[in-house]
Amino acid sequence: MTYVGLALMIVGTLFSLLKKDFLLKVHFLGISDTVGAVLVVLGLRGDAPRTILMVVVLLVWGPFISHVLARMYSEGSSRWNT
Questions:
Q1: Could you tell me the pTM of the whole model?
Q2: Cα(37)–Cα(82) distance, rounded to whole angstroms?
Q3: What is the spatial distance between Cα 34 and Cα 63, in angstroms, rounded to a whole number?
Q4: What is the pLDDT of residues 34-66, one digit of tens each?
Q5: What is the pLDDT of residues 18-32, one digit of tens each?
Q6: What are the angstrom distances between the C-alpha of 32 and each of 18, 46, 50, 75?
Q7: Which pLDDT does position 79 carry in this prediction?
Q8: Residue 4 belongs to what H/E stretch?
Q9: Euclidean distance between CA atoms 74 and 76, whole angstroms
Q10: Residue 44 in contact with residue 53, Cβ under 8 Å?
Q11: Is 81 exposed, middle or buried (0-12, 13-18, 19+ CB in 10 A)?
């Protein structure tokens, strides 16, 4: 599962380099990096409670950071340049 996660993160990064719109880049990277990181953590097969905690943290923080970046990009130009 670790290699599948790494491949997913690499493919998401390559697709984001092809797009010009920032919001599309954040969308590609947010999904591919979150799912890829979860697959990498699940592939490590460590301690069960720690693995579950890491997966939950990744599933919460990945989309949250993507949302914050997209929100600041869309509102930042009108809010900070006045």
A1: 0.79
A2: 38
A3: 7
A4: 999 999 998 987 788 888 898 999 999 999 999
A5: 988 888 899 889 999
A6: 15, 22, 22, 24
A7: 56
A8: helix 2-18
A9: 6
A10: no
A11: exposed
Amino acid at 78: S
Exposure string over 40-70, b if 16+ CB within 10 A, otherwise e: bbbeeeeeeeeeeebeeebeeebeeebeebb
Domain limits, the chain: 2-77
Phi then psi dihedrals of residue 46, to 5 deg: -90, -150
3-state SS record for 8-76: HHHHHHHHHHHCCCHHHHHHHHHHHHHHHHHHHHHHHCCCHHHHHHHHHHHHHHHHHHHHHHHHHHHHH
